[in-house]
Structures are given as structure tokens and as C-alpha cells.
């Protein structure tokens, strides 16, 4: 019962994006280090299950600037899941891509596992995923050949 109580005490950020680029381009923007860096952070991602990688950001109090990740699941072109550990966080990020009726991409982000006592970090990431990521990801993915 305790595990169930702990799980229900977690918070999640869920964002649905409607992007004009097709899923193959959005997939590239999520999985190619140079492209991912251009809209998120410097990284060394490889979309291979079990692969460890990092994101790098400016350090802040309680955060050394490194987000340590591990690819947990890869369904090429449609789903990518990785752990997201940095500062006080031990969370996971899942991206799900679907072809939209307009030929673009319906993209869902699920960033899950936030403890209730990390509300400032949650609020900061929630705003970033909702505002900055949407326009930046659209710009990068729609510019690809």
C-alpha cells in the first residue's frame, strides 16, 4: 500500500503539441544531439534503450547543471522514454508522436514523477515545456529537409 501512496503523491507535466512538421522530422529534433541542443540543451543522446546520456545547463543552487538520463524505451518514430535525474529530481520524460490529420505531428510530452516538495522546480519546468519548448520545437522541426 505504501508504494501506491507514494505514486499518487507524485505530480506530472503533460503537454500536447500540434506541430506542422511530420513525425519523421519531429523525431529527428528529439533524438539528434545537435538538433535537440538547438531547442533544449547540449546533450549526447542516442536513441538506444539502455543508453546513458546527459543534458547540460547552467548550474543553480542545489543543481550542478547536469541532467543524467537513461533511455528506457525507444519505438523509432513514435515513442521515446528516458529518465531525467538532476538536482532534486528523479523523474522521467516520455514523448509520443502521431501523424496528425493535417500531415503534421500530434506530440505528447509526459514528464512524470515530481515530488510535491519540489514545486519550484516543477513550476519552472512546466512553464518551459509549455511555452519555450513549443515554439522552439516547431521552429527546429519545420526547418528540416
List strands and helices in order, with pairings.
Elements: H1 2-8, E1 11-19, H2 23-31, H3 33-39, E2 52-56, E3 66-75, E4 79-86, E5 89-99, E6 105-114, H4 119-142
Antiparallel strand pairs: 1-6, 2-3, 3-4, 4-5, 5-6
How does this structure look, described?
Mean pLDDT is 93; it is low at 1-6. The chain has four helices and six strands. The longest helix has 24 residues, at 119-142. A hairpin with a 5-residue loop joins strand 5 (89-99) and strand 6. It has helices at 2-8, 23-31, 33-39, 119-142; strands at 11-19, 52-56, 66-75, 79-86, 89-99, 105-114. The protein has one domain (2-142): START domain (Alpha-D-Glucose-1,6-Bisphosphate, Chain A, domain 4), CATH 3.30.530.20. Helix 2 (23-31) packs across helix 3 (33-39) and helix 2 crosses helix 4. Helices cover 32% and strands 37% of the residues. A six-stranded antiparallel beta sheet has the order 1-6-5-4-3-2, covered by helices on one side. The protein is α+β, with helices and mostly antiparallel strands. It starts with a helix and ends with a helix.
Features:
145 residues; alpha+beta; Alpha-D-Glucose-1,6-Bisphosphate, Chain A, domain 4; six-stranded antiparallel sheet
Average residue pLDDT: 93
SSE class: alpha+beta
For this structure, the CATH topology is Alpha-D-Glucose-1,6-Bisphosphate, Chain A, domain 4
Number of helices: 4
Question: What spatial order of strands do you see in the largest sheet?
Answer: 1-6-5-4-3-2
The radius of gyration over CA amounts to: 15 Å
Task: List unreliable stretches of 5+ residues.
Answer: 1-6
Q: How is the main sheet built? A: 6 strands, antiparallel
Under the CATH scheme, which class? Alpha Beta
Q: Tell me the β content.
A: 35-45%
The second-level CATH architecture is: 2-Layer Sandwich
Amino acid at each position: 500500500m505504501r508504494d501506491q501512496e507514494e505514486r499518487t503523491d507524485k505530480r506530472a507535466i503533460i503537454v500536447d503539441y500540434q506541430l506542422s512538421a511530420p513525425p519523421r522530422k519531429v523525431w529527428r529534433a528529439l533524438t539528434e544531439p545537435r538538433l535537440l541542443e538547438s531547442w533544449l540543451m547540449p546533450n549526447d543522446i542516442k536513441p538506444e534503450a539502455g543508453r546513458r546520456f546527459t543534458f547540460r545547463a547552467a548550474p543553480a543552487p542545489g543543481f550542478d547543471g547536469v541532467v543524467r538520463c537513461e533511455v528506457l524505451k525507444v519505438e523509432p518514430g513514435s515513442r521515446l522514454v528516458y529518465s531525467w535525474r538532476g538536482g532534486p529530481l528523479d523523474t522521467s520524460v516520455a514523448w509520443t508522436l502521431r501523424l496528425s490529420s493535417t500531415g503534421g505531428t500530434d506530440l505528447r510530452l509526459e514528464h512524470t514523477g515530481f515530488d510535491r516538495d519540489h514545486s519550484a522546480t516543477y513550476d519552472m519546468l512546466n512553464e518551459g515545456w509549455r511555452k519555450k519548448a513549443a515554439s522552439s520545437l516547431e521552429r527546429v522541426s519545420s526547418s528540416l529537409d
